[in-house]
Design a protein that fits this description.
eight-stranded parallel barrel, alpha/beta, TIM Barrel
């Protein structure tokens, strides 16, 4: 059994894509949520005080930890935008809104995904992204907040970025499927290499050629190997479900997406030795 581990979910993965996420989490015995900040087109909904009051009320009502906030709009805005470009100001706005929101909701980790428009491919991408991340880490660090990069970098590439950012509060955010799905990497080799640099939380999901498209342990990402490796390293922190229970193709496995959520929770608890 793994002590000092809390099970949670990403709010965007739960049925309803975030609607009533705290209530759903509590109903299923989850302890934590990672929240998404939203999109520029919607003015980053949870960055506004009124919405933050709603979230804090739900937190008190349902007893759920808000353990991370994901700056998910970096799928659409390149984190390495050049100074003077329209996107550069949007990057800084997203950074600033993320810090203020994390502080207002007492969230300890800002998760920075670098996929799609923000995937790091060239040396200039690394240079400009590290400059932005250094700024974000400075703003977040003043409030005791960690910044964690989620990306497709192998351990040596991440260490390069880590040294370029050069901030104590910059860490890695591990995901149990992305490296295998998008790069063909061995998930366990990535986990072992990244572990010294990881923040105290990670995403678990599975799939057969599709992201978040199979129940845990039934896809090709070696979920059970990930769990064994975490046990061997004495992991403590949050393990967050990120399967997409009401989206294709996973929803084809049941007429009730909530039953799929329940099955994944059972699988995760069994892997932790807790049921």
């Amino acid at each position: 059994m793994m002590n000092d581990v809390k099970i949670g979910a990403c709010d965007w993965a739960l049925p309803g894509a975030g609607l009533n996420a705290a209530r759903i989490a509590a109903d299923f015995g989850l302890e934590a949520l990672s929240l998404k900040i939203g999109l520029y087109e919607n003015d980053y909904p949870i960055s506004h005080g009124r919405m933050q009051r709603y979230y804090l009320d739900d937190q008190q009502r349902y007893g759920i930890d808000y353990c991370a906030i994901a700056l998910n709009d970096f799928d659409n805005i390149p984190i390495y935008a050049e100074k003077g470009s329209p996107d550069f100001q949007r990057v800084r706005t997203l950074f600033d809104r993320g810090v203020r929101t994390a502080a207002a909701l007492h969230i300890p980790v800002i998760q920075v995904p670098c996929f799609a428009a923000s995937e790091l491919k060239t040396e200039s991408h690394f240079e400009r992204a590290s400059e932005g991340l250094r700024y974000l880490c400075g703003e977040a660090g003043e409030r005791g907040i960690t910044v964690a990069g989620e990306n497709l970098l192998n351990p040596s590439e991440f260490e390069k970025l880590l040294h370029m950012v050069d901030k104590e509060n910059f860490r890695a955010y591990y995901d149990s499927q992305n490296y295998h799905l998008f790069r063909g990497y061995d998930q366990l080799e990535i986990l072992k290499g990244l572990y010294p640099h990881m923040t105290g939380q990670l995403h678990v999901k599975d799939g057969r050629g599709a992201m978040s498209g199979a129940l845990l342990g039934t896809g090709g990402s070696n979920f059970h190997g990930t769990m064994r490796t975490l046990k061997e390293h004495g992991f403590k922190g949050y393990i967050l479900l990120e399967n997409y229970y009401d989206q294709l193709p996973l929803r084809l496995e049941s007429d009730d997406p909530y039953s799929l959520l329940a099955m994944d929770i059972d699988t995760l608890r069994q892997a932790l030795g807790d049921g």
